[in-house]
């Protein structure tokens, strides 16, 4: 009796999870399928699930309709450049917030948290003016520098650094390690799951970012992939959905690949670990 | 190898003095144990020697060199922490070699030294493992190896055995003492456990409320305590304290094993040179070879330790007799030791047992 109830409950649980999963997966699936359809099939009603014939040339059309290699390379440079800068500024900042007592620490950390709550849309105008003063508009620097420090990253890393027992740091000091060395050889490896998770968040966010490159760039040499894909839409009058979806596939594929390999770290960053 | 000297060392936390003007000489090559109840400042003292805490006042010398302004890594000391404090992301090998690498040793030199030490502490098969894959005892050995490989002048140990189970603790106690003999370095060891202090140290520093109560060899500490605190802190069960006969400003103390327990029915031995108390046994603890009696007497509750040859039952009315030669006299106000009750003349008298 109890066994049967348990099984029934399990079934309900699975059905619910499957339903939620479907809600998340469906847009991806639709993008994937649409990317392989012909134009008439896209507009066909009722829609077909499976493409009647697989149109691989959609990808070719998307890829050749602009300097996509440049877009991909720019997107990568921007996302990676931002991540490197964010780690270079965030790790020492988080270490200081977590491990040092200094005057104004609380106030500075409060300021960092406030920065976390301000969206880019609020400050883009002054930042644009600043970038234009420096002559950086329409360069990759305008895409990288404003994101060089991440409040979210500092917050996340600080929490993780605070978990490190004092004695481990003291042992390293007795082992004649400099603060810099302690930070990079003791703290950072211990915060690896959090770092990987933050790295993914940051990379995905800036890889996909549309708003900032849109206002900071106006030539193909510095445009990123999301802009390139949106121009696909503009160029084709917003009609060729199959090509646009093929472009989107090109956009998300690297992210999905990274995500697939980093999954283990993401889970361990969010699940409580006991050692 | 070096001696460590503390001169009027003080430490304040938020305006509160936790270490109050310590003067202490830790001889070269000694095994010195700092012992005292929690909050007595023993760990803070050790951490000041290590350089992990800055002394508020006074001077600390290692060898002949003042080290107050030297960072921990430059003091030529090594420390073993209570919770081992191993680097969890590094292998055992990297844990041990980390300090050497930071001192500029080459990879080759490190390898030779690490392998040599690993052999000594029996870690050779585990060098590639992470600390999380080791048992408590093995982690303790890694912590020791990490300290030993640096060949420091002074070893500092902050309750290194208290995370181990009783059996392993006994074993490590013996190993640490023989290690000390083997290395000949200065060991400074902090513990709250007086058994550890008595068994391992050749010099014991008893601390209380940020001050040194007494510095002595283990048996001297036991037999000639300077004050009430040491008398009651060292020895288990603690020394009994009763009001002194006739003198209001003094108290008497005697060790539980120095008292003689007699049935109230047995006629008094009637010694003028012994203290006699009447009472009844409140409870009895049989420890195997010994028995502890808690006796409620006319002078307060006392503990008497006897062998287990003839047992008295709880509730029995008894006499407790203590030879004056075994009585310590303390000043009631200051707690300072004055002299023995009986002036030097030691009389042969029965002590320690049940009649």
TrEMBL record, chain A:
<dbReference type="InterPro" id="IPR035906">
    <property type="entry name" value="MetI-like_sf"/>
</dbReference>
<dbReference type="Pfam" id="PF00528">
    <property type="entry name" value="BPD_transp_1"/>
</dbReference>
<dbReference type="GO" id="GO:0005886">
    <property type="term" value="C:plasma membrane"/>
</dbReference>
<keyword id="KW-0812">Transmembrane</keyword>
<dbReference type="InterPro" id="IPR000515">
    <property type="entry name" value="MetI-like"/>
</dbReference>
<feature type="transmembrane region" description="Helical">
    <location>
        <begin position="182"/>
        <end position="207"/>
    </location>
</feature>
<keyword id="KW-1133">Transmembrane helix</keyword>
<feature type="transmembrane region" description="Helical">
    <location>
        <begin position="140"/>
        <end position="161"/>
    </location>
</feature>
<keyword id="KW-0813">Transport</keyword>
<comment type="similarity">
    <text>Belongs to the binding-protein-dependent transport system permease family.</text>
</comment>
<keyword id="KW-1003">Cell membrane</keyword>
<feature type="transmembrane region" description="Helical">
    <location>
        <begin position="107"/>
        <end position="128"/>
    </location>
</feature>
<protein>
    <submittedName>
        <fullName>ABC transporter permease</fullName>
    </submittedName>
</protein>
<dbReference type="GO" id="GO:0055085">
    <property type="term" value="P:transmembrane transport"/>
</dbReference>
<feature type="transmembrane region" description="Helical">
    <location>
        <begin position="12"/>
        <end position="33"/>
    </location>
</feature>
<feature type="domain" description="ABC transmembrane type-1">
    <location>
        <begin position="72"/>
        <end position="262"/>
    </location>
</feature>
<feature type="transmembrane region" description="Helical">
    <location>
        <begin position="240"/>
        <end position="262"/>
    </location>
</feature>
<feature type="transmembrane region" description="Helical">
    <location>
        <begin position="71"/>
        <end position="95"/>
    </location>
</feature>
<keyword id="KW-0472">Membrane</keyword>
Automatic annotation (TrEMBL), chain B:
<dbReference type="InterPro" id="IPR003439">
    <property type="entry name" value="ABC_transporter-like_ATP-bd"/>
</dbReference>
<dbReference type="InterPro" id="IPR013611">
    <property type="entry name" value="Transp-assoc_OB_typ2"/>
</dbReference>
<dbReference type="GO" id="GO:0016887">
    <property type="term" value="F:ATP hydrolysis activity"/>
</dbReference>
<dbReference type="InterPro" id="IPR015855">
    <property type="entry name" value="ABC_transpr_MalK-like"/>
</dbReference>
<keyword id="KW-0547">Nucleotide-binding</keyword>
<feature type="domain" description="ABC transporter">
    <location>
        <begin position="4"/>
        <end position="234"/>
    </location>
</feature>
<dbReference type="InterPro" id="IPR008995">
    <property type="entry name" value="Mo/tungstate-bd_C_term_dom"/>
</dbReference>
<dbReference type="GO" id="GO:0008643">
    <property type="term" value="P:carbohydrate transport"/>
</dbReference>
<protein>
    <submittedName>
        <fullName>SN-glycerol-3-phosphate transport ATP-binding protein</fullName>
    </submittedName>
</protein>
<dbReference type="InterPro" id="IPR003593">
    <property type="entry name" value="AAA+_ATPase"/>
</dbReference>
<dbReference type="InterPro" id="IPR027417">
    <property type="entry name" value="P-loop_NTPase"/>
</dbReference>
<dbReference type="GO" id="GO:0055052">
    <property type="term" value="C:ATP-binding cassette (ABC) transporter complex, substrate-binding subunit-containing"/>
</dbReference>
<dbReference type="GO" id="GO:0005524">
    <property type="term" value="F:ATP binding"/>
</dbReference>
<dbReference type="GO" id="GO:0140359">
    <property type="term" value="F:ABC-type transporter activity"/>
</dbReference>
<dbReference type="InterPro" id="IPR017871">
    <property type="entry name" value="ABC_transporter-like_CS"/>
</dbReference>
<keyword id="KW-0813">Transport</keyword>
<dbReference type="Pfam" id="PF00005">
    <property type="entry name" value="ABC_tran"/>
</dbReference>
<dbReference type="InterPro" id="IPR012340">
    <property type="entry name" value="NA-bd_OB-fold"/>
</dbReference>
<dbReference type="Pfam" id="PF08402">
    <property type="entry name" value="TOBE_2"/>
</dbReference>
<keyword id="KW-0067">ATP-binding</keyword>
<dbReference type="InterPro" id="IPR047641">
    <property type="entry name" value="ABC_transpr_MalK/UgpC-like"/>
</dbReference>
């Amino acid at each position: 009796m109890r066994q049967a109830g348990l099984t029934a409950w399990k079934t309900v649980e699975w059905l619910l999870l499957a339903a939620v999963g479907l809600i998340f997966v469906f847009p991806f699936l639709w993008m994937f399928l649409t990317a392989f359809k012909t134009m008439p099939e896209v507009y066909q009603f009722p829609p077909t699930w499976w493409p009647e014939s697989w149109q691989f040339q959609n990808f070719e059309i998307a890829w050749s309709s602009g300097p996509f290699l440049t877009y991909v390379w720019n997107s990568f440079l921007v996302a990676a450049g931002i991540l490197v800068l964010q780690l270079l500024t965030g790790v020492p900042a988080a270490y200081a917030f977590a491990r040092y007592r200094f005057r104004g620490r609380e106030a500075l950390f409060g300021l960092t948290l406030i920065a976390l709550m301000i969206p880019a849309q609020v400050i883009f105008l002054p930042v644009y003016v600043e970038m234009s003063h420096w002559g950086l508009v329409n360069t990759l620097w305008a895409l990288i520098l404003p994101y060089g420090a991440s409040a979210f990253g500092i917050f996340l890393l600080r929490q993780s650094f605070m978990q490190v027992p004092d004695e481990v740091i003291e042992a390293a000091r007795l082992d004649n390690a400099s603060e810099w060395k302690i930070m990079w050889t003791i703290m950072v490896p211990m915060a690896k799951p959090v770092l990987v998770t933050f790295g993914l968040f940051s990379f995905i966010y800036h890889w996909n970012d549309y708003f900032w490159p849109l206002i900071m760039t106006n030539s193909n040499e510095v445009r990123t992939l999301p802009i390139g894909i949106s121009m696909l839409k503009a160029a084709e009058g917003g009609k060729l959905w199959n090509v646009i979806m093929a472009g989107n596939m090109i956009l998300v594929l690297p992210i999905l690949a990274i995500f697939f390999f980093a999954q283990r770290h993401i889970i361990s960053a969010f699940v409580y670990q006991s050692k | 190898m070096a001696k460590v000297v503390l001169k009027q060392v003080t430490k304040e936390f938020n305006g509160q003095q936790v270490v109050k003007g310590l003067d202490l000489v830790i001889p070269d090559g000694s095994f010195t144990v700092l012992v005292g109840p929690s909050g007595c400042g023993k760990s803070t003292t050790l951490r000041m020697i290590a350089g992990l805490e800055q002394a508020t006042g006074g001077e600390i010398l290692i060898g002949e060199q003042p080290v107050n302004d030297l960072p921990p890594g430059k003091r030529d000391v090594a420390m073993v922490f209570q919770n081992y404090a191993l680097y969890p992301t590094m292998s055992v090998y990297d844990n041990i070699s980390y300090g050497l690498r930071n001192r500029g040793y080459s990879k080759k030199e490190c390898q030779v030294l690490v392998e040599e030490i690993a052999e000594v502490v029996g870690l050779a098969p585990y060098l590639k493992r992470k600390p999380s894959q080791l048992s408590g005892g093995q982690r303790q050995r890694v912590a020791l190896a990490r300290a030993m490989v640096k060949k420091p002048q002074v070893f500092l140990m902050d309750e290194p055995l208290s995370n181990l189970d009783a059996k392993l603790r006994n074993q490590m106690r013996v190993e640490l003492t023989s290690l000390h003999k083997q290395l000949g370095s200065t060991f400074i060891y902090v513990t709250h456990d007086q058994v550890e202090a008595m068994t391992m140290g050749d010099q014991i520093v008893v601390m209380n409320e940020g001050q040194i109560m007494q510095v002595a060899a283990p048996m001297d500490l036991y037999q000639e305590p300077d004050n009430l605190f040491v008398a009651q802190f060292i020895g288990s069960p603690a020394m009994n304290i009763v009001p002194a006969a006739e003198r209001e400003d003094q108290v008497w103390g005697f060790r539980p094993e120095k008292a003689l327990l007699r049935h109230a029915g047995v006629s008094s031995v009637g010694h003028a040179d012994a203290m006699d108390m009447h009472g009844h046994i409140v409870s009895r603890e049989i420890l195997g070879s010994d028995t502890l009696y808690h006796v409620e007497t006319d002078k307060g509750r006392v503990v008497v330790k006897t062998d287990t040859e003839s047992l008295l039952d709880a509730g029995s009315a008894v006499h407790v007799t203590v030879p004056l030669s075994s009585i310590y006299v303390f000043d009631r106000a200051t707690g300072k030791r004055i002299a023995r009750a009986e002036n030097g003349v030691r009389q042969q008298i029965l002590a320690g047992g049940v009649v």
